[in-house]
Please model this.
Amino acid sequence: MTDVLVPKSMISDPHRFGGVDHGDCVHGTPIVKDGQLIALDAPTQTATKMVLPRLVEPHCHLDKCHTVQRLKNVGGDLHHALASQRADKVHWDEDDIRARASKGLKEAHENGCGLIRSHVDWGDEPAPPLSWSVLVELAEDHSGLQLSALTSIEQWIHPEFSETVGKVLEFTDGVLGAFVHGHEKTRAGLEALFATAIRHNLMLDFHVDEGLGALHGLEQIADVALETGFDRPILCGHCVSLIDKPSHEVQRIADKLVRAHITVCALPMTNLYLQGRTDGTPDRRGITRLKELRDAGVPVVVGSDNVADAFCPVGAHDPRAALALACVAAHLDPPMGDWLPAITTDAARALGATAATVDGAHLADMLTCDVTHTANLLSGRVPLRAAPDTLM
Ligand SMILES: [Zn+2]
Model:
């Protein structure tokens, strides 16, 4: 068996796993037992490939993806994108939604994803939209696909909405998601939303503070989570306005996030496209405080978000590309292995799933890449391949 490198951050029990130090990886000869990579023996040759668990896509939009070619007026801020995408919904019949979502899902799988969470626009009515039904059907055929209803926070104040949607989500294994963006009744909406999630035993996922300037939704979410003692996973996406808060406020909010066990999802592709718009080249960038949050003990994950739609005309369902962009946008310095949990183990935990590491994993659940450095792994220039075909 050929020697391999394994990023240290992808090993749960380094003392038992063995191998020889090689930067932010260990190097050795794989010991496989019953189809599982259980340890590394002493190296016998130069390693030419890296082994890692399947990746996790914690935040995308399979209902919206691949619409850019037929959209008019793409280009503008968040509100412009919302209007442009809303106008496209006249095309959203069953075949259209299934074809585009299947294409997005295929891309995610080809880019190494084993677990994917997609948001699905819910719309104005309590009854599920057509896109929810189509995506639920798709999820029945793809066990690693989770769906999160994307609602507006103020909708939850209405008892008929919260009770109907809560029941549908429980019945279809959905996640309760909401858009929180300086709404007047955010606090009341959050209280009703958390009460629904507790009643129906649902995980939570927010699009929160998706803009620069004074937005306070993230702290309000943490406050309600702490007050209610909510104990299911909570993922907060975007959190861009943290960049505009002074460090003592960031610290105060981060402390609440840690205590409430909230994970923050950075979404650099869409945020860099939509936030900080001027008439010319942007001089402000939209990105959450990845470094400060992580230093404070908040788990930080990274997602692809929008792909070829009104919110981002480019993009890809590719966690490596999203993390590489975060590396550039937020100045995440090597060793990049330290940030791999953002698209693997920490992302899995944020989605309420088991955090698969390399030690003890089945070969069928692992990937290899012909690189010898974690920075090269993230460059995306070398494809990921299924481990059973390439490790033996
Ligand atoms: Zn999103």
Q: What stands out?
A: Residues 59, 61, 119, 207, 237, 305 surround zinc ion (CB under 6 Å). The chain has 14 helices and 15 strands. Residues 302 and 356 are 17 Å apart (CA to CA).
